[in-house]
């Protein structure tokens, strides 16, 4: 599956990260949701992880194989 800018994704495994302001180490958990900002040649994506108020708590480059795209609508299939 191809991942594109602005796709909503979730981590498939835990990932250590750094808070962008405090520089404190944080742990992003499997299932943590983020938004794709950039895609790098099908190998990795820059992901913005934000809270419910839109404040970024991590921005990390994540390998494609550690991401899954989330879907809000079903795909219609022929009967």
Folded structure, characterized:
It is a single chain. The chain is mainly β and 79 residues long. The protein has a single domain, classed as SH3 type barrels, CATH 2.30.30. The protein has no helices and 7 strands. It has strands at 8-11, 15-18, 25-28, 33-40, 44-50, 56-63, 67-69. The strands form 2 sheets. The protein has a 5-stranded antiparallel sheet with strand order 6-5-4-1-7, with no helix packed on it. It is globular and about 55 Å long. 11% of the residues are buried.
Task: Explain briefly what this protein structure is.
0% of the residues lie in helices and 48% in strands.
Helix share bin: under 10%
* H/E topology pattern: EEEEEEE
**Span of the ends, CA to CA:** 23 Å
Q: Helix tally?
A: 0
Radius of gyration: 14 Å
Q: Which whole number gives the mean pLDDT?
A: 94
**What strand line-up does the widest sheet have?**
6-5-4-1-7
Q: For the report, how would you describe the main beta sheet?
A: 5 strands, antiparallel
Structural class: mainly beta
Total strands: 7
Poorly predicted tracts of residues: none
CATH topology: SH3 type barrels
Query: What is the CATH level 1 assignment?
Result: Mainly Beta
Which CATH architecture would you pick?
Roll
The fraction of residues assigned to DSSP E strands is over 45%
Report the principal-axis shape.
globular
Number of domains: 1
């Amino acid at each position: 599956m191809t991942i594109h800018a602005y796709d909503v994704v979730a981590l498939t495994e835990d990932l250590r990260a750094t808070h962008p302001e405090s520089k404190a180490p944080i742990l992003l958990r499997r299932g943590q949701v983020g938004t794709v900002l950039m895609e790098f040649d099908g190998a990795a994506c820059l992901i913005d992880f934000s809270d419910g108020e839109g404040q970024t708590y991590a921005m990390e480059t994540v390998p494609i194989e550690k991401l899954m795209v989330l879907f809000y609508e079903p795909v219609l299939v022929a009967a």
